[in-house]
Amino acid sequence: MRQTFDETTDRSFGPKHVPLIRQAMEAQGLDGFLVPHEDEHQNEYLPAANDRLAWATGFTGSAGAAVILKDKAAVFVDGRYTIQVRDQVDPAFFEIRDLVDGGVPAYLEQAAASGQKIGYDPRLHSPDALHHLRAAAAKAGAELLPVAENPLDRAWGQARPPQPTAPVVPHPLEYAGEDSADKRARVGELIAKRGADAAVLTAPASIAWLFNVRGGDVIRSPLPLGQAILNKDGTARLFLDPQKVTPELPAWLGNQVRLETPGDLPQALADLKGLKVAVDPAQSSAWYFEALQSAGAEVVRAEDPCAIPRACKNKVEIEGSRKAHVRDGAALSRFLHWLATEGQESPPDEITAVQKLEQFREATGALKDLSFDTIAGALSNGAICHYRPTARLNKRAEKGSLLLVDSGGQYLDGTTDVTRTVAIGEPTREMCERFTLVLKGHLALARVRFPAGTTGSQLDALARVPLWEAGLDYDHGTGHGVGSYLGVHEGPQRISKAPNTVALRPGMIVSNEPGYYKEGEYGIRIENLQFVTEAEPVAGGERPMHGFEALTLAPIDRRLVVKEMLTPEELAQFDAYHARVAREIGPLLDGEAKAWLAEVTAPL
């Protein structure tokens, strides 16, 4: 099994580790220390060696922060993790606070004392975040100080896992769709248009995409950790741990790419003296800005020049994603058939469901990895948005309940992410009504037409309106970008309440995943991946319009749909989607599974 069910932390982590951190703080003359979730590469999913927040607090979510002062501490999470954090973190040791509503800056204003020196690791914080943190500390009369040695790392000591050294391998053109030299030339032109001579790249996804390579340093993502300097003429310097460099890699990169070690990076930044260098303040830490400024380079604050080109998938990548989703959809449909037959007679526990689904994906012969640890939430666990089954928390589904399964696979030709909520036994009327409200929002976001320049934040409300009208909502984004055999969460595009200035462009892949969660009882989420289509004229319209095309193909549990709550348009849309599932997935199934699929995708 790729997924395990052991817990890597517990509530004792804070009481055990914070005193060690405080000792290291005191040795450095610090009264406090900031612990972000992000690592040196601003990763969301972390290698074990960089999961500092989990080691300090016990909290293992993919977003959060902590502040450790001499006499108090606080941990910060967003709405996805309000239940999880209470389970993993000792509330007697940490004050639990909202990451979004005021967050760390508001806490510093209140909790820091005049004259205190609060440390931070400049490799872990973006310059924009530090600006707000410094201002907040100053209001309290405290001072933020950069540290040369991270006191948490010092406290962790020999127990800290080693840095990952997964091999970096070529990603063939048949999957990438564009040669690295062409990408570098294209992105180099973007750098020049921004008035820069070069750009520093630190995002693992950008490095993997630009050089057509893949690695394995980040859990569930084929990403190599490293850095690069791309010049406006398309030449580049790539910094990788020599242990990761495979024999075929130098020839694959070509003579326009100079392969160096991370130890060479400080001198390489110093070599940029007198040049204009673009750096993304949202992707690169303050350390890079400070190093470049100290070297005498002129820093140009600009978005990672690979971000938009990487997000706008080319025709080969879109076609690859289609193939990956058909393959994955067949595996998921076999799993859903198992749930509809054996799973109804003898409801499975969460771990059994996860293992069964992984077996179906493995049977494709093409699975490289899961795209994230499968979420299988039975009963009240379904109401925990980013729940992961463990031996301790594992629950068995019961008749009259819901099972929420959010999962995905990594394939050479694409990355998948899909959620289905399934009734075990006979669902209640309330479950069906709220499922149908979620479905109505999902359908609205799937069929929308929109002009060029529209952002995901402008579309977000479409998925929420049916819930809002019933006095309901959900505390997570509606859609995130997805990579092409890269990270399952990929920016810069997203669909959420949070303001986003990135327009949705053709080829961008986003999820469509509204939900509803009744704490202590059940959860509902329906998720498909879809991509932005080329703008086309609408009959009688004045402007060409973009739309979405679904990539995910798997049946939605029609037993949970209240037919009379759907409009004729929604009903036709639902039936059309299921007809496509039957048409494309049906031929890949056989026997009872094939007959079952025909039945559950018949017109509602």
TrEMBL record:
Entry GO CC: cytoplasm
Domain Peptidase M24 C-terminal, chain residue ranges per copy: 545-604
InterPro entries on file: Creatin/AminoP/Spt16_N, Creatinase/aminopeptidase-like, Creatinase_N, Pept_M24, Pept_M24B, Peptidase_M24_C, X-Pro_aminopeptidase_P
GO molecular function: metal ion binding; metalloaminopeptidase activity
Keywords tagged on the record: Hydrolase, Metal-binding
Residue ranges annotated for the Peptidase M24 domain, each copy included: 321-534
All copies of domain Creatinase N-terminal, residue ranges: 21-148
Origin superkingdom: Bacteria
Pfam families: Creatinase_N, Creatinase_N_2, Peptidase_M24, Peptidase_M24_C
Family of the protein in this entry: Belongs to the peptidase M24B family.
Name of the protein in question: Metallopeptidase M24 family protein
Source organism: Phenylobacterium zucineum (strain HLK1)
Organism lineage: Bacteria, Pseudomonadati, Pseudomonadota, Alphaproteobacteria, Caulobacterales
